[in-house]
Automatic annotation (TrEMBL), chains A, B, C, D, E, F:
Name by which UniProt lists this protein: Alkyl hydroperoxide reductase AhpD
Cited SUPFAM superfamilies: AhpD-like
InterPro entries reported for this sequence: AhpD-like (IPR029032), AhpD_core (IPR004675), CMD-like (IPR003779)
Bilayer-crossing regions: none
Taxonomy, superkingdom: Bacteria
Record-annotated Carboxymuconolactone decarboxylase-like domain positions: 54-126
Natural source organism: Salinarimonas ramus
Single GO MF annotation: peroxiredoxin activity
Pfam hit, one: CMD
Length: 137, 137, 137, 137, 137, 137
């Protein structure tokens, strides 16, 4: 059994009107009654809850990149930072958007390879090739 | 002017036959005469050069994910780890595969947002929702 | 001379009305004509610029913690992540809010010590003491 | 049930005189009989135990910054590095020094925001503004 | 009880011929019938399993550094990144190659000290001494 | 030309007696007149300078591990964290203790490989094998 959270999760019953409004928007946006623990922990600061939810909603919306690609990027960063909660939640989120096992294995292969070559480049202090530099303004 | 690399870059003239063979494969694979500095630094250990190149080539090849998506993931991880060389080189690589400015801004927005929420989840020790857990085998 | 940014900085002349509105709010909030490079780089995505600025403004405003304490935390995290830009910019920001050299040296001493003991705890997999666990809900 | 530590925790009964002397100083300094697991794990190397305890005691003592501010910085770094032990122990330590729930939520908001903007600055390779640079000696 | 893995572990019975061949090489190389969970998780992508195993085998083989020293470096990096699995598995691997408790405590002391001084150098932006720079090619 | 340090480096002329005493011990310990920039930056807080120097001296001294092995670990961690100063200074330090180019290439290969497999283990949430767990006390 894992340890309890630092602050207790806020249930629907204990939610203030400000918190309830955000929970309602989460439900409406996702077309699901489920509000996951991350938001219930953040609910101890209703303004932070709203700010974080609004920005996540905007960042993850379809744009120049589709929502599945964005979830894959989230998984890659969460594996790099070793966030257990985010690894499980965004893997589930990506699956709901169509990620297959083969895609997951490739996301992790690329993320892991980047973590490897990042350290080779840093450890050898490789100078950036002129060909890679953007033009100076 | 930035600092010199830890080990000098290996030029075509100084390349041993083993190194030259890898450089040739880089050129053939990319259909370009250009061999960038990362490989010229790794060339001090020809076996490591070959191993790293072969694995990067395999990981970045088209598969369940297309090469552009893989470059975007590389950028996200490199920004997370703050690898200057990798940020410049993979941004250039992604552009060559079709990445627009708008796509780059979204990759970084997602990567940065993941870095933010990873720390909120970790700092509050949010328990993983049962709904996100894979079935036990 | 350092490398050019990945995307050119957006000058006042090149700013779209949406970008200009954010720049104006930065100036009004800080009571200064100066808009630093971070915002000029983000301006390539006006929605992201606004979102990031609004959230930074809210997070760094006086609340349960005063603005100077918040700048000190920003410095500690930026040193941990090795963000050169953020180290210079938030050190300057903290000084403007009253940070002395002695305070800076202590911020870095604490941040560095946390980075040290974090790895001792992780490397030895020290179990969390019952006395430190929050009560279960 | 979590995994056992890499090395067993050293109990009072098993403590060598050198270890016992450090445990006694921990108790005297904190005016509490409690010696937490971190020190009991480090006790496998008595010289390292003493060195680490002496430096933590010195770094966390009142100085240009007060002890509560130092605990807040410790929390921010520990959340950034994802050290479970340190997150629980320093959250408890900060509470004992007066940290409220509202303060904790703000510490994490600032730490998380720094983690976000660090990656935007790194990913875009934003050049440091001249205005932020210290004068050259 | 810890959470289930993201993808189920591949048992000997479920292993495809490609996977079985890698498992057999792991057993032959280590002269042991034991195939640990890391490889059973990677087995969902047989090409990635083979590539990762072949490169780990090559990197960890005796060379300019002996295998025990390589395991110590693995422990230091895994503690730095806070990889629970890798901390336990490489500590066990190092012990099998002769690591004593005293050696483990010193590895972690050095790794932790590097994590500390890395942040002091970064936070103060200490310029690299000319004496430390390699000669320019 | 790189940016100036956050605080000016303390020259021998400007060193207080407390700082001078540490500089003298650095010189005596290393049998060299050279005091590198790291210590000159830390000298703004003489107590922190002494504490950091004393602990680095103790941690890096011969013990269960020899000084060269310790330098290799320092390089591996510094490459992982991307500390430019530490990469250059500890590479120079390791060379002075006998590190060859071949050894350096292997240190970085192991460190990079650990960075890669750490993320595969984290991203797949691989459960720790019972065989790797230490006995419960």
């Amino acid at each position: 059994m894992s340890h309890p959270p630092i602050l207790p999760l806020v249930s629907d019953e204990d939610a203030s009107p400000d918190v309830k409004a955000v929970f309602d928007d989460i439900r409406a946006t996702r077309r699901s009654d489920f509000v996951n623990n991350f938001w219930r922990a953040l609910a101890h600061d209703p303004a932070q809850l709203r700010r974080t939810w609004e920005s996540v909603k905007a960042v993850m919306a379809p744009g120049a990149l589709d929502p599945l690609t964005k979830e894959l990027i989230y998984i890659a960063v969460s594996a790099t930072n070793n966030c257990e909660y985010c690894t499980y939640s965004h893997t589930a989120g990506a699956r709901a958007k169509g990620m297959t096992d083969a895609m997951l294995m490739e996301v992790l292969a690329v993320a892991a390879k980047a973590n490897e070559t990042n350290r080779l480049a840093n450890g050898l202090r490789v100078p950036v090739d002129e060909a890679f530099l953007p033009p100076r303004a």
